[in-house]
Amino acid sequence: MKVLFDHQLFSYQRYGGASKYFAMLIANLPPNEWDTSTIFSNNEYVKALQLFETHHFLPNKFFRGQGRIMNELNKPYSAYRINRGDFDIFHQTHFEPYCLKYLKNKPMVTTFHDINFSTYTPNPRIVKYQKLSLERADAVIAISENTKRDLLRIFDINEKKIHVIYHGIDIDDTPTTPIMDEPYILYVGSRYGNKNFDRFAKAVSILKQRNINIKVVCTLAPFSNQEKIFLNSLKVLDSFVHLSASEQQMKSLYQHATIFVYPSLYEGFGMPILEAMANHCPALLANASCFPEIAGDAALYFDAENEDDMACKIEQLIQDSSLREQLSSKGDIRVRQFSWKRCADEHRKVYQTLL
Q1: Least CB-packed of 57, 113, 209, 340 within 10 Å?
Q2: Sheet strand arrangement including 259-262
Q3: Considering Cα of 275, then 143, then 67, then 24, what sign does the dihedral take?
């Protein structure tokens, strides 16, 4: 069996949950069972895992449109490899339909992460592409039961070809050196749309009014001028710290955070939940989307649309060390239900049904 993964997400994403999923999936498949049509990529997971050789496109410069350029550079070779047909199954990493005319009768798998392009970040062009991919796919991987329900609600798709396969996590208990020298809340990821960052910032403002002063470390992109103006209007700009963290630095941030807060209104899965639990970090999550499905009783939950409830739960968890220890212990147990090896093994079973 040979599975060909195309270039799309490895072109577009330097970091990101979707490309990390594909990188970890590939890393846990037998080396002789997969190949890729990626030539140009600045993806950090491919680099860290030394998955395959790529050419880096201006690796020390990051600018808007860089991923689109790499996508266009990779596309002709991907089309050539798909048309050549020296594989058994094609696994599309994103939804651009360039590949469909070259596939002929080869089985195709596509992974559906979330419905954000239909809801929180509307993009009719990508939704159109999603429909084409879902119609052509012989098997669809949904990354949670919640995502499967969303798929069935929004798209006309045969339920029998949907397979729910959870993401995994690699557990490494190696201790790390603290990056921050004072207590902090950890916020991971982007801060737009469904991420619900504005309500979270308002909850921090409520806490500050109660004389509960704690730093908030935010990762990924630096704060924009608009974000700084917003945080300053809430009188919490001095409470927020940005760190552009590597994978190893992220591990340290999780391990030494007082709590991890995930206020998002919607995610397909929520990889940071597993990352927090794997690093013994107490998790405070929005009671929304798939989060209870993933974390179970190993997290404390709040009303995602109520900043007062969010502030109360943050205060509760900051002040109750025994509750933090209880959640951390439950997280240690819960996270062991998720592994990249199990994820890869379940993908292999799906692939084999298509041969």
Answers
A1: 209
A2: 240-242, 215-218, 184-187, 259-262, 283-286, 300-302
A3: positive
The residue type of 146 is N
Among 248, 301, 300, residue whose Cα is nearest residue 275: 248
Listed residue (196, 169, 216) closest to 314, CA to CA: 216
Q: Which of 89, 67, 112, 125 is nearest to 290 (CA)?
A: 112
Burial of 156 (0-12, 13-18, 19+ CB in 10 A): exposed
Torsion from C-alpha of 55, 61, 62, 67, nearest 10 degrees: -30
Element housing 233 (H / E): helix 225-233
Give the Cα separation of 299 and 322 in Å (integer).
13
Cα 270 to chain centroid, rounded: 6
SS3 state at 13: coil
**Is residue 98 packed enough to be buried (19+ CB in 10 Å), middle (13-18) or exposed (0-12)?**
middle
φ and ψ at 186, to 5 degrees?
-105, 125
**N- to C-terminal Cα distance for the chain?**
8
Question: Hey, what amino acid is at 114?
Answer: D
* Domains of the chain with bracketed CATH: 3-168+339-353 (3.40.50.2000), 184-337 (3.40.50.2000)
Q: What is d(CA 31, CA 20) in angstroms, rounded to the nearest whole number?
A: 18
Task: Report how far residue 29's alpha carbon sits from residue 4's, in angstroms, rounded to the nearest whole number.
Answer: 12
Residue 216 DSSP symbol: E
Prediction pTM value? 0.92
